[in-house]
Amino acid sequence: MYVTQQHYIDTYGELELIQLTDQNNIGTIDSVVFERHLATAEDMVNQRLMSQYVIPLTVVNAEIIDIILCILRDKLHVAQNIDEVTRNYADAMKRLNEYVTGHAVIDGAETQTQSKQQTSSQTSKAVFDDDVFAMQ
Known about the structure:
Blueprint: H1 5-12, H2 14-21, H3 31-49, H4 62-76, H5 83-100, H6 112-123, H7 130-134
């Protein structure tokens, strides 16, 4: 997981998170609801990034966290159509596309190209060398 409840609270406030997750009206954050929508948001990001990056990301920058938070907030507002949330979601998807197309990079994250180069160099090493065959 790249994002926590605390990330959401720090960005949008605890009261909003309670209002969006508390389906039983007991005045607390419903962690199950939060985690379900967070998993959906992170899966969306992972699915799009996997064409460029090795998933799961080992390094996550602040913008990726913000993108996930915008998607998560949109998912939590399922019963409400709020223009600001919809605009932020659309903007987050545009920013995510910048990473997918290579116009933006996640510094320190392993790319698919790097992974393929490592795999091909590992598989191209000979398992047996001439000394092994000479022993027979």
